[in-house]
Specification:
Chain B: Keywords: Membrane, Transmembrane, Transmembrane helix. The complex is a heterodimer of chains A (about 575) and B (about 120). By secondary structure, chain A is mostly helical. Chain A contains 21 helices and 5 strands. In chain B, about 40% of the residues lie in helices and about 0% in strands. Classes of the chains: A mainly alpha (about 575), B mainly alpha (about 120). Chains A and B meet through helix 6, helix 10, helix 12, helix 13 and helix 14 of A and helix 1, helix 2, helix 3 and strand 1 of B.
Chain lengths: ~575, ~120
């Protein structure tokens, strides 16, 4: 019976049942059961188009299960489970429902076989996820959520425009491989690009993720961007421009990550950088590269969630996630520290951790297809990501200068969530065969060659050496309470200022008109008053009796007219 | 906030106590020297095995090591210069921004070991 139900509906059903249950463990358990059932279903589903619905003359494919959509749906289920376990303590119904609806919408979008279904779920992820930001319930978070919503909904509207144009061009709503060229495909590409945080379209990510609640950020980090990666892999694999977009994406966030103070924002920047690797893989578009993208997305969701969890736990216990305020927490939060280091090692692609067996697929594909400069950039970005995510996050949170904070270790459910995520990160790294088996294409790749292990270790240890040398010579920039201007400056500062400049002359004109109008009216009224008012000329000579006489005459005439007619 | 009360390490979790050696004098030096040794060994390893390379530049001895070191140093120095131009105060965009406002207390569970 459950086979006929689209996996997404399972989550929506859960969200419907949730408010009926009593507050407390019952709800938390439901939040855990739903992803487990969903993951089991996704894993056992046969491949093919399983559910079709008629909709205004269109046939919608709600469940297009193939190897590409399956691996993304599976990791989304795992991420939903880990995120909900991490959020076990949350009593806020809004966040709980948002988490379920958001995960469901993301999974629905991944299984969408046509563009209309994709559009619905695309907007679904936007609307459901914004509540995870608003749930912080502060003024700043409200405004951030608004900005997030505008951009996400904007992406959906652009997608819809693209879908409509595409239907006019081709007469088809199928979500298949597209070639860039027509306005329709460019619009769809742009919509995907916004959610994928392409350079200059990226700031919603760094703006909103650090603004969400402790648990909200963990859940946010998994879905939206990886849904965009999936959509690009499905629609635009082998589109060369993606290679260059991806390379820029890996590059510029690492500079920001080095100087950013809010550790959750550092992670958002490194998330952006990791997406770049996946986008490069999609752009190369060979089987090896697409395998790399899918595998890296899988590994990335796990270690990124793990890193957000560990920094979130610090925030949960201390009330801040700023590097300038933290330090020395290893003494009282050693387990969180160890899990953070596991996540850091995974994102840095240390041998035996998950990033090592997935990122290298993309780097190998770049080298094999002779994109040498791209390969060099990716290598630099790999070293850079170790620098700011691998070293900076654990160092400034748990070591560095002693902040004097002695928070208690994270609560048990957070430790379990982090422990499970750590286990998966290491399991994928040590034994990648089961992950490789899930990939869209056959894999004949061995990550553990002597050359690969030694060169990777050289890259990482010498990056660590650079960090140490810079730290000990005092060149390394200290963590300061500040914000750094990024492209969002254009719409948070420049645009309002420009609008202010345009508004000035417009306001002047309106005010001028207004003054002119008031003056003329005032003059007219004064003139009339002077003429007909109590002291006016006309009222000076006419006694009141004249009026009575005139009324009597008027009535008499009326009487005569009535009588005569 | 700094060092409000003298620490009582006995109240720390065992794992945290076990790690306290890094703060003892010489603890950091031990880690740094270990790093130097590992780096030297890895650099030397380049001469001891046959490298399977795609690119000519990979065959340069210690290419990955040097690339990692110098690119990272360049990264940090570039970022430091960027900060001069890009850094603003926390309430730059709005007086009540997520940067400058405290995280709502009711969503936290602050517990101190020494409280």
């Amino acid at each position: 019976m459950l086979e006929a139900l689209p996996t997404a509906f399972l989550f929506f059903l859960g969200a419907l049942i949730l408010p009926v249950l009593p507050r407390g463990p019952a709800r938390a358990v439901l939040l855990l059961i739903v992803p487990v059932i969903a993951a089991f279903l996704v894993y056992t589903l046969p491949l093919g188009n399983l559910v079709q619905v008629e909709f205004f003359g269109f046939t919608l494919d709600l469940m297009r299960v193939d190897k590409l959509s399956r691996i993304f749906a599976l990791i989304f289920c795992i991420a939903a489970f880990l995120g909900n376990l991490y959020a076990w303590h949350v009593k806020d119904l809004v966040q709980q429902m948002a988490a379920l609806l958001y995960a469901g919408a993301a999974i629905g979008a991944v299984f969408a076989g046509d563009l209309i279904t994709l559009f619905f779920y695309w907007e679904g992820t936007a609307i459901s996820s914004v509540f995870l930001i608003w749930a912080r319930r502060t003024e700043g978070a409200f405004h951030t959520g608004m900005r997030y919503l505008v951009i996400q909904i904007g992406s959906g509207v652009i997608l819809l425009a693209g879908v409509i144009l595409n239907y006019a061009d081709t007469g088809s709503i199928a979500f298949e491989h597209m070639e860039l060229g027509t306005p329709a495909t460019w619009l769809i590409f742009l919509a995907f690009g916004i959610k994928c945080a392409f350079p200059l379209l990226h700031n919603w990510l760094q703006d909103s993720y650090p603004a969400a609640t402790v648990t909200g950020t963990v859940i946010l980090s998994a879905f939206t961007t990886k849904l965009a990666v999936y959509s690009l892999a499905r629609g635009f694999a082998g589109t060369e421009i993606l290679i260059y977009i991806g390379a820029i994406m890996t590059l510029f966030p690492i500079f920001y990550a080095v100087i950013e103070n809010d550790l959750r924002r550092v992670l958002a920047y490194s998330l952006n950088n990791q997406l770049g690797f996946m986008v490069v893989g999609i752009g190369i578009g060979t089987e090896l590269a697409l395998n790399g993208t899918a595998a890296h997305a899988f590994a990335h969701i796990l270690y990124k969630a793990l890193l957000f969890m560990s920094v979130g736990a610090v925030l949960f216990r201390t009330g801040t996630a700023k590097g300038s305020e933290l330090g020395g927490l290893y003494k009282t939060m050693p387990l969180t520290m160890i899990f953070c280091v596991v996540g850091a090692a995974s994102i840095s692609a240390f041998p035996l951790f998950s990033g090592f067996v997935t990122k290298s697929l993309i780097l190998s594909a770049a080298a094999k297809e002779h994109y040498y400069i791209i390969w060099g950039i990716l290598l630099f970005a790999s070293a850079g990501v170790f620098h700011h995510s691998g070293i900076k996050i654990p160092y400034f949170a748990f070591f560095a200068h002693d902040s004097g904070l002695r928070p208690k270790e994270a609560p048990w459910h957070m430790l379990w969530a982090m422990g499970l995520a750590s286990f998966l990160c290491i399991a994928v790294g040590v034994y990648p065969a089961p992950l490789y088996a899930l990939l869209p294409f056959e894999v004949s790749y061995d990550a553990y060659t002597t050359t690969h292990v030694i060169t990777q270790l050289q890259l990482l240890f010498f990056s660590a050496l650079a960090f140490t040398v810079l730290m000990r010579t005092g060149i390394y920039p200290p963590e300061l309470k500040s914000v750094n201007l990024d492209f969002d400056w254009t719409y948070r500062r420049l645009l309002p200022t420009l609008l202010g400049w345009i508004a000035k002359p417009v306001r002047a004109i309106f005010q001028g008109l207004d003054t002119f109008k008031t003056r003329t009216m005032k003059g007219m009224i004064l003139h009339l008053y002077n003429a007909f008012g109590p002291r006016g000329r006309t009222s000076q000579f006419w006694p009141t009796g004249a009026m009575v006489l005139w009324i009597a005459i008027l009535l008499g005439v009326t009487l005569l007219v009535n009588y005569a007619s | 906030m700094d060092n409000k009360t003298p620490d009582n390490p006995d109240k720390f979790p065992a794992l945290g106590r076990a790690l306290l050696w890094v703060e003892k004098p010489g603890g950091v030096e031990k880690i740094v020297y270990a790093l130097y040794v590992v780096c030297a060994a890895l650099f030397a390893a380049d001469f001891l095995y046959h490298k399977h390379s795609y690119l000519a530049i990979e065959d340069f001895p210690g290419f990955y090591a040097l690339y990692g070191f110098f690119m990272c140093a360049a990264l940090v120095i570039c970022a430091k210069v960027m900060r001069v131009f890009l850094s603003r105060s926390e309430d730059y965009y709005a007086p009540k921004d997520v940067e400058s406002e405290p995280f709502p207390e009711d969503q936290l569970d602050k517990v101190d070991y020494d409280a």
